[in-house]
Design brief:
The protein is mainly α. α1 runs antiparallel to α2.
Amino acid sequence: MAGYYDALLAALPLSLVGIAGGLAAAGVDLTVALTLGGVAATALTAHGLFVNGPTSATDQRTDSSYESAD
């Protein structure tokens, strides 16, 4: 089952190539098209890091019977 980060890793090159290619095919200058595709890929990366940040395995524990040794 693909998770959020698997989809994010697939979306990064797809957004860069897709947006840049689509804009270039529409007649936009290649430099502008690549810049806008890069901005979209950067936004996806920032979302994955700062908005929906990675968590450690201990943060995801759902076992309520676990007690620490402290």
